[in-house]
Amino acid sequence: DNSVRAFNQRLAHIWNMPQQLLVQRNDTAVHAFMEAEVLDQAAYLERIAALAVSPETYSRDVFTLHSGQVLERRSVPQLHHGTVMGRVYSFRDITQEVQAQANLRLAAKVFDFSPDAIFIADSEHRLLRVNPAGETLLAQSAQPLLGADVTALFSVENTFVLSKQVQAAWLNDG
C-alpha cells in the first residue's frame, strides 16, 4: 500500500531529508520529497509504477538527484508464505563510483586518441597495451608483441629503427 514501515538514518542522510519530515511520519510527504529531489521525475515515477504492476519483480535503478548525487536503488519483494506483502528498498550513494567510471572512460579515450605513442607494461616489463600511435611508431600491430619483454623494443637494434621512424614521422608532420 506504499506505506513506509521503517527506515534508517543512513536513508535520511543520503536523501538529505529535513528533520521535520523525519518526525511527522507522513509517508505521502516522504514519497513526495524523494520524488521532488530526483532530476528525472518521470523516469523515477515510471519505475515505481512498474514495480506496483509487477510486485514480484526485483529491480535495480540508478538516478540522479538535483544535488548531483547519483543513487542506486535496489528493490526486492518482501514475501510472507510465498505472497508478496511489500517491498524492501535499499539505497546507496554511488556518485564517486560513477565519477571514477567516467574518469576511466576519459583516460581510455586519451590513450586511444593520443598522438603520442603510449606503451603500458606490468611490473615485470611485459607489454600489456600499446595505443594506435604506438602501433604506428612500431609500424606493426601490437598484438604479437603483447606479453613480450618491453625492454626488447628498446634494444640497441630496435632503438635505431624506432629513432628513424620517429624522425620520419616528425618530418612528415612538420
Brief descriptors of the model:
two-stranded antiparallel sheet; single chain; 7 helices; alpha+beta; elongated; three-stranded antiparallel sheet
Describe the fold and architecture:
The protein has seven helices and five strands. The chain has 174 residues and is α+β, with helices and mostly antiparallel strands. The strands form two sheets. The chain has a three-stranded antiparallel beta sheet with strand order 1-2-3, sandwiched between helices. A two-stranded antiparallel sheet has the order 4-5.
Rounded Rg: 27 Å
Order of helices and strands: HHHHEEEHEEHH
Binned, the helix content reads: 40-55%
Strand order of the largest sheet: 1-2-3
Outline: elongated
**Poorly predicted runs:** none
Largest sheet, strands/sense/barrel:
3 strands, antiparallel
- Would you tell me the structural class of the helices and strands? alpha+beta
Share of residues in strands:
15-25%
Described by its quaternary structure, the protein is single chain
Average per-residue pLDDT, rounded, comes to 86
How many helical stretches? 7
Q: What distance lies between the first and last C-alpha atoms, to the nearest angstrom? A: 72 Å
Could you tell me the number of beta strands? 5
Structure summary:
By secondary structure, the protein is an alpha+beta fold.
Present the secondary structure layout.
Elements: H1 9-15, H2 19-24, H3 27-37, H4 41-53, E1 59-64, E2 70-80, E3 83-93, H5 95-113, E4 119-121, E5 127-130, H6 132-138, H7 156-173
Antiparallel strand pairs: 1-2, 2-3, 4-5
